[in-house]
Specification:
This protein is an alpha+beta fold. Helices cover about 30% and strands about 20% of the residues. A hairpin with a 2-residue loop joins strand 5 and strand 6. It is globular.
Length: about 240
């Protein structure tokens, strides 16, 4: 998966992506108000771009309360989750990683636009007529989105040393990338990923990212999310994913 250039609309935002990473926490309770028109436009424009680049079929659903009113949603403690993004794409081995990587672009964009979000793997209902699936496509998860009643809370995270091979001889940007990755949302905060600085090849640094094992699942999706965070934290460095 190639590293992605940031869209032009990032330039008009007052919050940087690094600040969005630090400020963003999962939110399940939202204010009962529709998204502003300019916010919807920015999200839909970015979804169109990311769908093309990631070969996905993400869809923004507005003012639809039923997806988060079922039994599973009540278990997830959602309130006024009337807007969400259906995360879908054609079945493939790397679908979950692309869903995580490009979906997190939308999550952080939403944060810069004054919104709050929550990745939702199970506690939602598929409401007929609210989305479209083309042949061979499937829904991987939903992302709830809206104006949060709160900004959420932070959770305990692993240390840099637990998830990478950073040392005195690895570049400083590598550690910064890992620090950003550790702030990425993962299923039940499992953080089952690791990063390895491999070295130089053809004047490019090389980094390997791996998912770990989890009985809960979603590790491939989590890895995609963490890789995007890593890229933001690492900054404008020429490196390749192995």
């Amino acid at each position: 998966m190639e590293r992605k250039k940031e869209p032009d609309n990032q330039r008009r935002q007052t919050m940087t992506l690094q600040e969005a990473i630090e400020a963003r926490h999962s939110v399940r309770a939202y204010k009962n108000e529709p998204l502003a028109g300019d916010v919807v436009k920015a999200l839909e424009e970015e979804i169109a771009v990311l769908n093309r680049e990631g070969k996905l079929h993400m869809q923004l659903i507005l003012n639809e309360p039923k997806a988060f009113q079922g039994t599973l949603a009540k278990y997830g403690k959602f309130r006024n989750a009337n807007n969400y993004i259906v995360m879908a794409g054609k079945k493939a081995e790397d679908l979950d990683e692309r869903i995580g990587y490009y979906g997190e672009h939308l999550v952080l964009l939403a944060q810069t636009l004054g919104l709050n979000t929550c990745w939702v793997g199970l506690s939602y209902s598929k409401v007929p007529g609210t989305y479209v699936l083309d042949e061979g496509e499937k829904i991987a998860c939903y992302i709830a989105i809206g104006y949060g009643e709160t900004q959420g809370v932070s959770h305990k995270i692993k240390t840099v040393e637990q998830v990478c091979n950073a040392s005195d001889i690895t570049p400083s940007w590598f550690k910064k990338g890992v620090e950003a990755a550790l702030l990425a949302p993962t299923a039940v905060n499992q953080q089952k990923f690791s990063f390895e600085y491999v070295g130089m090849s053809n004047n490019h640094h090389q980094v390997r990212a791996k998912k770990g094992f989890s009985m809960i699942g979603y590790t491939q999706m989590d890895l995609g999310i963490a890789k995007y965070h890593f890229e933001i934290g690492a900054g404008k460095v020429n490196f390749d994913w192995l």
